[in-house]
TrEMBL record:
This is Uncharacterized protein. It comes from the Bacteria. It comes from Paralcaligenes ureilyticus.
Length: 129
């Protein structure tokens, strides 16, 4: 297991407020290159929730789809300001992932290869996994 994958797998333990049911059913369905971004996102979400004691959140799924990050969650008991702050953090992570290679973390862009969208740098695009 790579260090990046171990970091992702540890997130439910580090942030039980985000993962109240423990690890995700299907795990993190993303490449290792986005692991730092997801860890930073979870840290930000946890900070926002600490400042809103009545709010709770459950991360449901984290995956790559159509070359982009999909981060699905349920939010309960949050006021509009807290909900907006959480949404803004997720939106920033989604936008950032569109410019980061999912496999290695280097600068990249979404590319369409015959209808298959991916976010891979030029080196990873030519080097199969």
């Amino acid at each position: 297991m790579s260090e990046a994958r171990a970091r992702l797998d540890a997130l439910p333990t580090i942030y039980p407020r985000l993962f109240p049911k423990g690890p995700l059913t299907w795990g993190f369905e993303i490449g290792d290159g986005w692991s730092s971004l997801i860890a930073a996102l979870c840290a930000r979400l946890d900070t926002v929730l600490q400042e809103a004691p009545g709010a709770s959140m459950e991360v449901r799924q984290v995956k790559e789809k159509f070359g982009g990050l999909r981060f699905y969650y349920e939010l309960h008991g949050a006021d509009d300001e807290t909900a907006a702050a959480l949404r803004e953090a997720v939106d920033l992570a989604v936008a950032t992932c569109a410019h980061v290679c999912e496999r290695c973390g280097r600068h990249s862009a979404v590319e369409d290869k015959g209808g298959w969208l991916s976010t891979l740098c030029s080196a990873c695009r030519t080097d199969p996994p």
